[in-house]
Amino acid sequence: MATQTARQRRDQARAGYDAFLAGCPSRQLLDRISDKWVALVLAALGEGGPTPPGVACTPNPRAMRYSELSRQLAGVSQKMLTQTLRSLERDGMITRTVTPTVPVTVSYELTDLGLSLQHLMREIKDWAETNMDRVLAHRAGTHNRRIDLLGRSGADRFAGRGARANQTRMCSPEIVPGFVCRCRLVCSELSKGAGDCKEALLCRRRVL
């Protein structure tokens, strides 16, 4: 039997997986590494600590303590960070080192496997930060177009109701805001004693 090189073995293993197939195990790995906290933990360990604003991030992999990671990853809960670190350690992406000090020091460091993924995660993080403004602009444009279409549709729907629609929209002067009719008109004026308001009773019938 011919001896295979490490690259040949990797190529052969890669050929045996296809994430487009429903039962492919590589989907589990894709699901794991697509988590935002996984991406940020790997990026943090690869950068070796926080970077001052306006300064480009340069790769500087080093071991980081749990408390350092917790401070750098703003918004992560203790439970989520612990689960993320354990899953990365289980998958061979990072190593966990316990130093018997007082108190005990626990640090995490990228393995060669984790470092190979960290390069990709850092590029994805950089891409997200670079293009966030463009994405927000597209979102705002899409939202405005939808609002415009909904506004036109609503105007056409209620165009023929005339005075009756206007009467339903306004109730007595003793105000309790927020009552929503089935026709989606908001009674901005709904009496606390709604039984005295004929328009409010009309709205209630529509809801029922």
For the record, what is the CATH homologous superfamily label of the largest domain? Winged helix-like DNA-binding domain superfamily/Winged helix DNA-binding domain
Low-confidence parts lasting 5 or more residues at pLDDT below 50?
A: 165-208
Second-tier CATH architecture of the largest domain: Orthogonal Bundle
Order of helices and strands: HHHEHHEEHHEEH
Compute the separation of the termini in Å.
79 Å
The total number of structural domains is 2
CATH topology of the largest domain: Arc Repressor Mutant, subunit A
The top level CATH class name of the largest domain? Mainly Alpha
User: What is the strand arrangement across the widest sheet?
Assistant: 1-3-2
Provide the β-strand percentage band. Answer: 5-15%
Topology, number of strands: 5
Mean pLDDT figure: 74
Q: Classify the secondary structure makeup into a structural class.
A: mainly alpha
> What's the Cα radius of gyration?
29 Å
Q: What is the helix content?
A: 55-70%
Compute the number of helices: 8
